[in-house]
Amino acid sequence: MxxxxxxxxDLWTVETAVIENPTIWRAYFTSSTPTxxxxxxxxxxxxxxxxxxxxxxxxxxxxxxxSVRTRRLPAAxxxxxxxxxxxxxxxxxxxxPAAAPAPNVPPPRRTR
Length: 112
What we know:
Radius of gyration: 25 Å
Mean pLDDT: 80
Low-confidence stretches: none
């Protein structure tokens, strides 16, 4: 994490990289960035809870410096987790109110 800028013109850079390798990701915050977003990022970076990731989607240079563990789960556990996830997502997206039906207006007549 690095702080650049002057009074009233703050710029914070948060970056993850592996020594002698390219940046994995980078985030920028300015003085106009909502504080709840900065708080969420810093809390997630400090959280030591393991994060589930697909090992095939992790860059090789990062994979070499982390522990990766896979395990088999019963199909019933996966199915119930999927059902919970779908229910949670469905609850977040309520259907918009139905639009009123369009009035039945005859098409305009052609005039000369």
